[in-house]
Amino acid sequence: MSTIVSLISYPFLPAKVGGQKGVGLFNKYFSHYYKIVCVTTKKNDPTAAEGYEVLNILSNSPLRYINVFYFFTLSKIIRQRKATHLILEHPYYGWLAILLKLFCRIKLVVHSHNMEGLRWKTLHKWWWPIMWQYEKWTHRCADYNFFIHDEDRQYAIRHFGLNESKCITMTYGIEWDHPPSARERQIAKQELLNQYNIPSGHCILLFNGAFNYSPNIDALKNITDFINALLLERKDLPYSIIICGRDIPAEISEKKYPNIIFAGFVDNISLYFKGTDVFLNPIREGGGIKTKLVEALGYNMNVVSTETGAIGVDQALCNGKLLLCGDNDWYSFAGLVVQAATISSEIPVTYFNQFFWENIVKKGAAFISLPS
Fold this sequence. Notes:
There is one protein chain. The protein is about 40% helix and about 15% strand. With about 375 residues, the protein is of the alpha/beta class. The longest helix is centred in the middle third of the chain and has 20 residues, at about 215-235. The two termini are about 20 Å apart.
């Protein structure tokens, strides 16, 4: 089995939020095809890795991104392990990865999780054009480019001038290949009804995320300030909204909103995905694919989303369970929530063909094994 060195410049173990899970699970399943040696920061816990080796030797300091001595550290690891490929997660260590490619004669794979320059643009950072140019250079120097969804892949081909034959879509995935049974969902829902004293006739709506990330806070405010207010005006849907996730701002969580329950961080998020009826995804900014959306559909939930929030997930794969509206059309969003509460279709097998991790990485492993 050939060896790949994976360069990850930020904390992701133990994986608790969507982006961290995406990296950890990608390596877990890619290790079925290659021996993975992950070089990452000291804040990572090597014991949390499944199926691959973790060398947490990089500094936690922001200065790590300009530490030229890491070239010699990585070169030694590549030679000792006789690695054939280097996978770079995000473009931030692009300069280092490109030097390693040139001097160690190794194939470079850039694994993009979003268009970083464009993401920073949506977050109103003045320096986003610098990031965009750096990202472009990094991708152009790679032998293979992995993109999180087709829109990013097509954008990079057009605007970065990439060779299409060197680009592939490697989406975020889920670890199960079939939805939970109706019985499982019924048991989970009853547990939530009991835990939060929710009336048995209520449709339970769910939103979860990490609230140290501004697009998720924006989405939460869209729920509390607009969507909930519009649903309260309607009399055709008895409902409760559960909000899960770390770092909910106190000025929101301590305020009393009718029909909203702030659960905060929960140990078993799968209970909430199984036991709730409709997932709310009022995201208006940020890049990549929304991991919580992929998971919600995999749990057979009905989902109402903005168009931006659903980028990377094809409605045609969802058997009518994904309902979309414009990014700021909260009146339509509320109407779709009422509609979603009545949908009884099942998520089809074609959805799992697309988003099951084993299927995703099998395609990627074959792609980088092809002759250059």
